[in-house]
Structures are given as structure tokens and as C-alpha cells.
Amino acid sequence: MRVHVADHPLITHKLTVLRDERTPSPVFRALTEELVTLLAYEATRNVRTTEVTVRTPVSEAVGLSIAAPRPLVVPILRAGLGMLEGMVKLVPTAEVGFLGMVRDEETLQPTTYAERLPDDLSNRQCFILDPMLATGGSLGAAIEFLFQRGAVDVTAVCLIAAPEGIEAVRKMTEGREVTVVVGALDEKLNERGYIVPGLGDAGDRLYGLV
Ligand code: PRP
Ligand code: URA
Q1: So what's the ipTM on this one?
Q2: DSSP letters along 134-194, please?
Q3: CATH numbers and ranges of domains, the chain
């Protein structure tokens, strides 16, 4: 598994505002979208392309076009939904599938409560969106789900990760083609499985308490 920490000053600046407990939901949502666009730039570095030729007003130009089959973007509901617009803005031709997962706050185990994905992901490049990589349980299960359907490589885009979660996902995905692109690698998890310093509960901060 490759891990890329995209510690660009613009990303760190926006993440700092996101972390601030005083940042209200509308600003939090706008910043999340902006951050994803910046992270997506790195996450799509190896997107498959094919060579194409176009005619400019002056001559022919050889360029690149995103190859078929189209990339599949998979936000993990609920919090991953806050990242979707930023990603599809950058890759408008991508298809979008959905995975609904929730972590039990006592056991920290994830369960999948919704799934809307193509049955066959053979030969597909997939991009998972989830702001928080904490214990890694949710992301590890989501990645396995996509490989079971035939995906060939999976890139996860996360805003903040804990070292414990990165290691857990690394173990769960051994031998798989997996990349994690993250805006910040934080210090640790606390006893409740929250990332420290983190930003709290991403879903609640995006959409309010449930
Ligand atoms: C959060 C977050 C991740 C998961 C990370 O979702 O968006 O999906 O927790 O934790 P893990 O790495 O320990 O699995 P949550 O379960 O709170 O659901 P929500 O998005 O509906 O708020
Ligand atoms: N889920 C979140 O939203 N935040 C954390 O810190 C851990 C899991």
C-alpha cells in the first residue's frame, strides 16, 4: 500500500480551519469540497489515460483522455458524501457508486447498511472518499468490498488519518494495489477511537448531530 501525505501549505491551512471547533457546518462543507479538489489532484496522478489527437486552429496536438472504463468514485456515507462534489468537479466523467457504513461507537466495528455499486468492477479504477481514517475498519472493509467485485486498483482520499488506521488498512490489504492520499497524518487515536487532534465527528460537523 502506498501512502501519500499531501502536506501542501494550502491544504494545511484549510485543514486548520476545518479542525477549529468554532467552524460552522456551512464553512466546514465548503472547505471539505475545496480540500478534496486539492487532494484529488494528487489522487488521480495515475488515472488511466489513452493518447488522443485533436486539431487546434494551428495544427494537430497529441494529448491524453481519461481511458475507458471510466473511473468509479465511491463516497462512504455519510461523511464521504461531503467530499463528492469536490471530486466530480475534477473528474466530471467519473461514475459514482455509494457505500453506506457506520461504525459502532462501542465496539468500533463498521457495518454496511447500504450499497449501490456496479456488480462487476473488473478492470475498474476506484476512488473511495472518506474524510476520516481512524481505526481503519471502515476503509479496510470498503476496499475489500470493491476488490471482491473485481476492482483492480483502489485509491482512498481522506482528509485526516491516524497512524494506527494506516497500519490496519495496510495489513488488511496486503498484496492489493492500494493507495491512500491524505491531507494530514495525525498523532494517534484516543480511547474512544477518535483521531487526536483530528476534527471530531466529521459526519456531525458536516450535517449536524443524529
Ligand atoms: C466515520 C468516518 C469513517 C469512519 C472512520 O463515519 O466518516 O467512515 O467513521 O472510522 P474507522 O476508521 O474507525 O472505521 P461514521 O461511522 O461516524 O458514520 P457517519 O459518516 O455516518 O458519521
Ligand atoms: N470518525 C470521525 O468522524 N472522527 C474520528 O475522529 C474518528 C472516526
Answers
A1: 0.98
A2: SSSHHHHHHHHHHHHTT-SEEEEEEEEE-HHHHHHHHHHTTTS-EEEEEEEE-SEE-TTS-
A3: 2-207 (3.40.50.2020)
